[in-house]
Amino acid sequence: MYSWLSATVSRRGVPHARKLAAYAIRLAAIAVPAALPQNLQHQVMGLSFPGPLGLAAGFDKHGTLYHALPSLGFGFAEIGSVIPLAEEQRSLGLNAVIAILSRYPRPHAIPLGMSISMNRATPPAQMADDYLVCMEKLWKYADYITLNLGVRAGPDLHLPEHRATLYSVLAATKSKQVRMMTESGRGCPIVVKIDQDRGDTNNLLACVRDYAFDGLILSGGAHINEGKMMLANLQHVSNKMSDTMPIISVGGIRTPQDVADRLSAGASLVQIYSGIVESGPLLPRRINTHLSTLATAC
Predict the structure, then answer these.
(1) Cα–Cα nearest to 39, from 28, 27, 55, 52
(2) What number of other Cβ atoms are within 10 A of residue 290's Cβ?
């Protein structure tokens, strides 16, 4: 029934399909809660994840769904991307997101990541400032923070012509992380999100490694027929990073086997977006059951 509704609503546009999925998530969290299998727990970036499946940024932009996700079988969630000032049809802005996040007690039921970015009107020379103000104000609410480099609202930091801006953002945010850890007395891992379909992936990987960030989100392969290429690239990146940095894989994940394949190819965690829109809120339960059965068999 849900798949039929989703396909019907999708003809009106992606936002309508996402609204249907959000409504279904809230309903399912109350009507059919699911416990995560114990054998899926593991540690990544110093954080305890009840399971490897997370909700990708872009779906729950402001954190309004976070309270419903643990009972559906999600092991973590990422909100955003959060930007300093509100922009129509993009974000309510940093202060509005903080007001929502302040309602959730700590420690969080599942790790909560926050993707951060910049405003459209921000000049390239000041892009780092947008990332820094988001880091500072979200620090006490975040279990980890993601630097989203590939937003289409401004200069795409994947591209060679914006290399100087990329370096300034990475250097400034890494320095800010060190200062915030000292000032706050708590660590907060910083993850860099890279779209493997854009720019010089090898250079970006080298930057992430050289600046000693804590993790990498590797996105791409959103179309079904790109699945094999995504797996091959994931394996390549995993080998290139020599297991020194955990990888979160996102893009084109629609089935339990997709998740198992990403984990086998080197991902420590996976995120879904389209899958939850197309298949509904019971998909995480099916994924966790499949992963738990595989873990037990091993």
Answers:
(1) 52
(2) 15
When pLDDT is averaged across residues 222-231 and rounded to a whole number, the result is: 66
Provide the β-strand partners of residue 77: 55, 112
> If you search the block for the tokens 């600046």, which residue do you land on?
211
| CATH code, 106 | 3.20.20.70
Are 52 and 77 within 8 A, CB to CB?
no
Residues 6+ positions from 218 with CB-CB distance below 8 Å: 194, 196, 233, 234, 237, 247, 248, 249, 250, 267
Structural domain of 142: 2-297
Nearest to 29, CA basis, from 91, 80, 77: 77
The pLDDT assigned to 222 comes to 54
Structure tokens at 269: 């965690």
Query: Phi and psi (nearest 5°) for 193?
Result: -100, 125
* Mean pLDDT, rounded, of the chain: 90
Q: Give 161's DSSP letter.
A: G
Under the phi-then-psi rule, with left for phi > 0, alpha for psi from -120 to 50, and beta for the rest, what region is 130? alpha
Q: CA-CA distances (angstroms) from residue 269 to 60, 143, 170, 231, 296?
A: 18, 15, 23, 14, 19
Mean pLDDT confidence for 57-65: 95
pTM exceeds 0.70, yes or no: yes
Burial label, 55 (beta-carbon count in 10 A; 0-12, 13-18, 19+): buried
CA torsion through residues 249, 191, 70, 28, sign: negative
Structural domains of the chain, count: 1
